[in-house]
Amino acid sequence: MAEAVRFLLGREPRALRGVDPNLTVLNYLREVERRTGTKEGCAEGDCGACTVVLAELDGERLRYRAINACILFAPQLDGRQLITVEHLRGQGGALHPVQQAMVECHGSQCGFCTPGFVMSLFALYHEDRAPGRQRILDALAGNLCRCTGYRPIVDAARRMYELGDGDRFSEREAETVAQLKALDRGERLAFAHGNKRYFAPRRIEDLAALCEQFPDACLLAGGTDVGLWVTKQHRDLDTLIYVGAVEELRRLKTTETHLEIGAAVTYSDAMAALGERWADLGELIRRLGSVQIRNAGTIGGNIANGSPIGDTMPALIALGAELVLRRGAAQRTLPLENFYLDYRKTALEPGELVERILVLLPRPSGQFRCYKISKRFDQDISALLGAFHLELDRGRVAQIRIAFGGMAAVPKRARACEQALLGRPWTAATVARGRAALARELAPISDMRAGAAYRLLAAQNLLTKLHLETSAPAVATRVLELEVSDG
Ligand SMILES: Cc1cc2nc3c(=O)[nH]c(=O)nc-3n(C[C@H](O)[C@H](O)[C@H](O)COP(=O)(O)OP(=O)(O)OC[C@H]3O[C@@H](n4cnc5c(N)ncnc54)[C@H](O)[C@@H]3O)c2cc1C
Ligand code: FES
Ligand code: FES
Fold first, then answer.
1. CB of 76 shorter than 6 A to ligand 1
2. What pLDDT score was predicted for residue 2?
3. Is 113 close to ligand 3, i.e. is its CB under 6 Å away?
């Protein structure tokens, strides 16, 4: 129980022995390393001032990911390379192309947000050599600037590619890969700090055994919820079991019937596989948090967290998804809609974990739509979310599954509405029946995001929108493609 957390800080190997598992990477950088280039704005993953980049092994290559240091725990660095804004300047103080572009395009005024923007752009520089405007906007959506305005920063995102094709980090890739391989422990990381313990198992059997041994432990995936319990609620988490190092949980697999998503697959890793099968689900994930949040947060964490306004659950319920739960060697399968018992209360037994999510592959006759309603387009929590899976047969509703987020204490399937539509012609009159059923079965609350009356009306309108989009001739109901052009 005394292993050190081993990682690279830039090129320098670090071994943290007995570190507090609740120490965030941001506090580690600023208070232990005295590297104060990385800033704290919100300490809850919203502003991007703390953005750093993690490089991880991807076969013989490196994958660079922007991440919020404020809600990442220091032990999660194990086996990775941490790159901060201080690492970007070259010999003699030469600016990195990203920094040079920010200077030339006047991308900074007070400068507080600038290290975060620079690191988001640095990750983009390595991930994509020719990003379009939408890709650039997505890469920057998790960084807030209150004085410069975003246009010069978007200009810098284009200019940086004109200032160099690659950088020192690319030149040294093979060397860094070798360094990271040497750090790979191949077995669980376990250590204690006072009465706190941290485990990062590598195999599912080991994880399951630890969960049984410590049924009160906090499972940690991306930490985009758990991190805030420490930074905002000032909780001390005694036993943390990190699920993100378990290979089996990070796998996406397609069988003949299902897409199987390991519980620790991040949003970023799932986005393409989901988006190519269900376009609206890809779009939903693109709007979930920011790049930094999607690089950390997992679908399993979203499901297990059980928030009534979590985004993926209504969509997955509409798609008929099931969960594989595991306790020790025993597995059970549960429809996702039965997983939520009450407000933030799930069917998980003590010592049990979410292992996989099974989503039925699309059928040619099925049409899936989901609509997120939030005040801000990017990086905002839903006021409500409606998800619909519809199958028509000769103009009649042959099958339909409808689920909403933000309309009850749990993500809720709208069964009365489904019954009101089933077997009927897919017409405005049938939709009116469905709207009436929604009014009977949904009892939304009023809170800071939306009033109850607004929520109900918006939910009913989403049903109408579904009808407009799926009946002939289909009506264009989406204007966003018009707003963001590549010009
Ligand atoms: C800035 C910001 C923006 C956000 N935007 C959105 C948004 O737009 N939409 C949205 O839905 N959410 C949003 N979130 C919430 C958050 O990103 C999600 O809930 C996320 O999916 C949680 O996943 P995680 O991997 O980070 O989980 P963690 O925070 O690590 O864990 C969350 C919970 O799940 C449990 N858990 C994790 N893995 C397992 C497992 N395998 N088995 C059992 N229990 C497990 C943990 O113990 C914990 O209780 C946002 C959060 C932040 C900070
Ligand atoms: S300090 Fe705001 S996202 Fe981390
Ligand atoms: S330059 Fe001041 S916050 Fe962005």
1. no
2. 66
3. yes
Q: What is the mean pLDDT of the segment spanning 117-128? A: 97
Atom of ligand 3 nearest to the CA of 108: 1
- Going from the C-alpha of 234 to that of each of 22, 47, 230, 231, the distances in angstroms are 10, 19, 5, 6
Q: Which tokens go with 195? A: 């009465």
In which band, very low, low, confident or very high, does the pLDDT at 480 lie, cut at 50, 70 and 90? Answer: low
- For residue 481, the model assigns a pLDDT of 57
- pLDDT band with cut points at 50, 70 and 90 for residue 477: confident
| Nearest 10 degrees: Cα torsion 40, 45, 50, 52 | 160
The answer to whether the CB of 109 is under 6 A from ligand 3 is yes
* Ligand 1, pocket-test mutation among 46, 67, 219, most atoms within 8 A of CB: 219
Q: Which atom of ligand 2 is nearest to the CA of 41?
A: 1
